[in-house]
Sequence to fold (358 residues):
Amino acid sequence: MSEHSVIEAALTVGLDVGDRFSQLCVLDPGGEVVEEVRVRTTPEGLERWTAGRAPFRIALEVGTHSAWIERLLAGKGHEVVVANARRLRSICDNPDKSDRVDAEQLARLARADPRLLHPVSHKDKETQATRSLLRSRDVLVRSRTKLINHLRSTVKVFGARLPSCSSQAAAKKAREHVPAELRDGLLPILDVVSELSAKIQAFDRRIEQLAAQQYPQTQVLQQVPGVGALTALAYVVTIGDPSRFTSSRTVGSYLGLRPARYQSGGSDPQLRITKAGDRLLRRLLVTSAHYILGPFGQDCDLRRYGERIAARGGGKIAKKKAVVAVARKLAVLLHRLWQTGEVYQPLHLPVRPTTPNE
Fold:
């Protein structure tokens, strides 16, 4: 009997993970609850409970603790199914929701068919460390943006305005425009903004170094103007293995850049994008799309595609749709370049036939 068959014939476990304690529900092969127990959400707590048990299938929702729990239990020979929490409406919308109910629901879904849980895959430790680097930079950038917005709104109350400039130059250029009455309260904020900018620049240097040395595939993606080391590295560590997508077109859906759908009978309304997948990468792709469609973007198929959508009318809404559409096409293009390694062609123009005199 194969290992998979042994697991199928054994127990099925649902694990509702909490920050301090987790609830376990165990089903026998007939689907009857044979054990319900609460354990500490620590490696020691789970190891004590699993000690001496035969391989089983265990289901848990993706979250803060799911990565190390999956590594721990899979290392002991158990089949671990990490469920996509966004797709489990039967759990999150349950009017009788509780830890015990959620654990049993996870166990029953895993026993019936693990595909009902829409399983997700965790990255390895090295990739997760790289992702933490990218997210730390993102936290600093968003913190700096909030502080600059606070500065701009505060000085307006006193009839003043800070000069228009980049976030990096804000601390230097805004200092002399702060009203005297606000200097005690705002100059320390400017000092923090300056420190954050220095930290962000250090992160950028580290990201460029990491992309060049440990992720050489990012160089292929950076052929596209508007895609730098940051976006390329975020793309590579988020996608992981490009071969897991049967078609490059599915990457846009994976990153939440396709419109949601709620078709029923004769009704098929146009909805917003799903916003599934990694938020940081989606935001970076949208930023790249803004550059491609902006004043410094070069003429290319992506730009022309976005301009056609924006030209359909609708003002700002049409422009937003164009940006999202370009971001989606960019995600598809990057996957294609990664898989093939081919040279990026901004414009796919037909080849002009040569004349006898040429």
